Every structure is written in structure tokens, then in C-alpha cells.
Amino acid sequence: MRKRLLVSAIALGSTLGLVGTALADDGLADYRDRFEPLPHLPSIPADNSLTKEKVRLGNMLFFEPRISASGVISCATCHNPALGWSDRIPRATGHDGQIGKRNTPTVLNAGFLESQFWDGREPDLESQALGPIQADVEMAMDLEGALSRLEGFELYQRRFAEAFPGDPAPISADHLAEALASFQRTLNTPDSPFDRYLRGDLEALSEQQKAGMVAFVDSGCIACHRGANLSDSQFHRIQVPGSTDVGRFDVTGEESDRHRFRTPTLRNVAVTYPYMNNGATETLEEAVAIMGQEMLGRDFEQATIDDITAFLHSLTGEMPDIEVPALP
Amino acid sequence: MRKRLLVSAIALGSTLGLVGTALADDGLADYRDRFEPLPHLPSIPADNSLTKEKVRLGNMLFFEPRISASGVISCATCHNPALGWSDRIPRATGHDGQIGKRNTPTVLNAGFLESQFWDGREPDLESQALGPIQADVEMAMDLEGALSRLEGFELYQRRFAEAFPGDPAPISADHLAEALASFQRTLNTPDSPFDRYLRGDLEALSEQQKAGMVAFVDSGCIACHRGANLSDSQFHRIQVPGSTDVGRFDVTGEESDRHRFRTPTLRNVAVTYPYMNNGATETLEEAVAIMGQEMLGRDFEQATIDDITAFLHSLTGEMPDIEVPALP
């Protein structure tokens, strides 16, 4: 199967006159053209310019456990830099050990998504940021309480004033969200092997990974997993094994949204296991097989699963080089 | 009060012929001689040599939440690098949000202590390391389960084999403890202003900090808070406000140990609030006043409290420059 695909791809390249036109062209230009390398930054909203002061403050706030009711849970607890900025457990575990109903999405490259959360209930990182702080099963903190704790630290008074100059009361819910969103917009993973491949380093992928890319396109995975972040940010109906989650129906109440979820990114998917909205799928191979069955209505052959899995491994980029901040 | 102490100290220096013998001598050599600068490393036990392989593995294990029952609590949760390697809440909060009975001690410079935990129930970092993993109110994990989770990762199999070469089954409770202890022995904070002062940079302390050092010696604080880590590692009877904790009595059952606690380090005390075994004391000024009353039987004047507090701020050293590891 793998061989046939590669041969046909090379034949296609020949037909198009591509073989021989560039040094060591692998004949897969038509496939590469279906993808986009990840930019180093997502687009920045006009009303929240990305400044180093906001990023520094957002970095502090991201690691700040005292904006949780217990005082020990921060954004970094579930979006753990040691664990692909996620938690590697099936479902998020938060305040008092409560277990949420969904798998924690990584924050890596989240700025490239056009809606946030599995059900897309918030449009951007600013509106997303305050949700987990207040959610009963996550940080379980009332917003006023969180702001008042921050007010208690002289260093935060200074850092908020630096990040939002000219505001007489810079510590506010909006600014908390804006600083967190700014920091998160810097958490990107460009320069994965696949990005290097798309930019012309044709040896950055192994032959198996290239076969996987071809299968990914030819099988139709790319219909939803497309664009720089390999997500169309759209909602698709899916019920993975063991899930009764109604997904976006909870947000809109529209029957047509029942069991719809926003397409997750595939960037860094190899280091953000387990998979699916319920986190019940442990390995990438299983995830590929399930997606083939549920979304594409086909049983992938094992060789195809292996190829696509190899390709997905090429989507692991350079992790952001952040410092653990010294909190007040 | 501050002036009087400084004047008398300078007079003492004159008497001893110290003034004028060294460039810009501040006349406090006799006081400096009572202290020791912090070495860059504590002594290393003969049966657990400090190797970079063990430190690297220990660094991973320290940040590893999957050796907790919930999968989200690691050593770094309560010994948080962002918070002076402690948690800055009164009492440790662990598994399922349970609140322990004591304040979390910092792990910074813990290798310099001759007994571990508030009640000194373990003699060294190796024997300490496995306690919090198994404690019901902390990580709540059975040791076999923790080891079996680690066994499940190929990277840990490799890293344990590298750290403990020649052992056919390198993933063991002893090695888990040895790696964690090795990492913790690197978490030291030399080169605080006070260390620079003791090494001859007489301008590293302000005049108020020097007055605080003098008061610290003259008032007797140094009787227990002595040595490189400003702890004698001995047990002293104390019942701070609000505490009914019997301390070391729980360990030995000896009536003479009732309410005895091991002297905590004062290194980095300014960044490891709140204070006392029950964490009920929020500020350093309060802590100084309480220690004066409880341990020295005296009511410090406010100026003395301010001086000693200023001195204690000079004990904040350079935080260890560690990386958040990439876990498997």
C-alpha cells in the first residue's frame, strides 16, 4: 500500500514535469501545496497588541496558583510545560480532585485556532482565559477573589501597570485575560520536521512519513485537519468509543450541533496523548484507526495506520523556551 | 536601638584593633565570624554519588505528576520553583484537595539539613523522598504503582539505566529516592547578599541589615539558627499561636519531644512565607516578633524587628537555574 502510493505520487510528479526541475525533488510538490508551514506567531487582535510587558505578565499569571480557590492549581497544572502543555491524563483533574468531562487540549499553537474549547464556546484566547479560573471543576475561583489576590501583591500592581499603561486601575478581569492570551500567543511550535519539509528541506521527513502525508491527503484527513494548525476550527459530528458527550449542542441548543466538536489541532499530537474528547484513546495508532472509522467510514490497513502515525510524529515542533517565573 | 548596637559593635572592633586593618572594614568581623557562607553543594553521601545522570533523572521525577494517584500532583506542585520551591499557602494541599497539618518546607538547601521534615522523622533526602509520594494527603500513591507507571515509559527505562548502570532492574524504590535526592542536592542558593558580605564584600549589606545581623547574634537567634543553612538541625520546643501540633512526639513517643520541631533554615526565608509549622504567620515581621517571644522570652522593639527582618532579606540567594524537563 505504501509503495503503491509513493509510486503513483512520483508518477504524478513526472507527469507535471516536476522531477528533475529542482534538486532532489521528491515528486510530492502537489501534496506539499496542500499544507502550510506554521508561522512563528498567529495573527494578533487589533485590540490586544502583543507587547513584551503583557507577555511577561501573562507568563507570571499562567504559573500563578493563587488565582485558584485552593491556592495550588494554576493554568500550568493542566497545561503543563513538562507534558506538551497538556496533562497526559484522560480527563482534566482540578479543584478537590474533581475530574472534568473532557480531555485537556494543549495550549500550544492555540492562537491559531478560530474557536476555543472542544465545543468552541469561546471565539478567542481572551474570552477563553477566564473560563478555567472560574470553572468549579478546574480552579474554582470567583473572578473578584482572583483579582483581589493579585491586588495584594505590589509586584502584580507594577507589572499590570507596565502592561496596561495609562490605566488608573490596571488590575481587571479584561487585563487578566489579555495578558494570559498574549502569553499564550507566544506558545507556538514552528520548525517541526514537517515545517522544514514544507519549506524545502525534502530530507526532513522519512520515506514512511512522506507516505503518511500522502495517505493523510488521499484518505481525506486533510478535509478537516487543514491550515497551518491542521484544524479547520469547524464543528464536526463524532461519537468516539465510550463518549456520550453532546459537545456543541450544550453551547447552542441546536439539534444539528449535537455531538459536534471543533476539530483539534494535530500539531504536537505525538506528545499530547491521550486522545479524543474523552481522552479514552491512549495511542496515536488507535486514534488514527478510530478517526478512519468514525470520520471517513473506512478501516485503514495497518500499514496505512503506521504511515500516518509516522507522519503525525513529524508535527512535533520546537517547544517554547519559557522560564518559570519568580512569583511574588 | 539600632544606632546603639552599631556604635557598640564599632567600639568592639576598635578595641580589637580591627578598624583600619582592612580596607573599609565595618568593624563587625567578630559578628561575621559567627556565620558561614553557603557552599555551592552540601556534602554528598558515600553511597549516593552525585552524577549528572542521577540529577537529570531526579529533575524529571521531581516534575513527574504520574507518580501521584491523581496523575496531576508532582513534587513541584508543593515545592513550586515559581514560589521559592514551596507553595506560599499556610498548609500543604494535596490529593483531592486535602489540607495537611503543616506548612510546606522549601527544598532549597535541604541537603544542608541533618534531618528532614518539621519533625525530623527522616535523616536524609534519600529517606525523605518517598514519603510525600505515598502520604494520603499528598500524592497518595502506592510505591509499587509509582514504579510500575515509570516502567511503562521507555525513556524512564533508559534514564534509570544511565543513572544506575550495571543494575539489571534499575527502576526501584531506592533508585527513585536516590535520583530525587541527587537532584535536590543541586537546589542550593549560594551568593546571597549575606554570603557576599561574609566573603568580604562589606557593602553587600545595608547598614540596617548589618544592624539586624548584630541584633540576630546579640539576641540569641543564632543559638539555633546557625551554620551554613542557619539551622542547627536540632529539635526545640515551641508552640506558636494556634498550633496544637505535638511535633517530634509523634515520631519518638518521648514526652520530652512533645511540641519539639527541627529548626527550619532561614535561607530564603523572605520568599518562603507564610511561616511556622502551621503556616499561620503571614509576615516576616510577625515571625520575628513571635520567635522573640516564644524562643527568647523577650518582646523585641519595633526597630529591632525591622532590623532583623532587613537582615533576613539578605539571605535570599540566587535561585537554581533549572529547566522544566520534557517528560515522556
UniProtKB/TrEMBL annotation, chains A, B:
Q: Which residues form the signal peptide?
A: 1-24
Task: Please state the Enzyme Commission number of this protein.
Answer: 1.11.1.5
Q: Is Flavoprotein found in the keyword set? A: no
Which residue ranges does the record assign to the Cytochrome c domain? 207-316
> Which subcellular locations apply to this protein?
Periplasm
Supply one GO molecular-function term. Answer: cytochrome-c peroxidase activity
Q: Which Pfam families match?
A: CCP_MauG
What PANTHER family does this protein's entry cite?
CYTOCHROME C PEROXIDASE-RELATED (PTHR30600)
- Listed name of the protein: Cytochrome c peroxidase
Q: Which organism is it from?
A: Halomonas saccharevitans
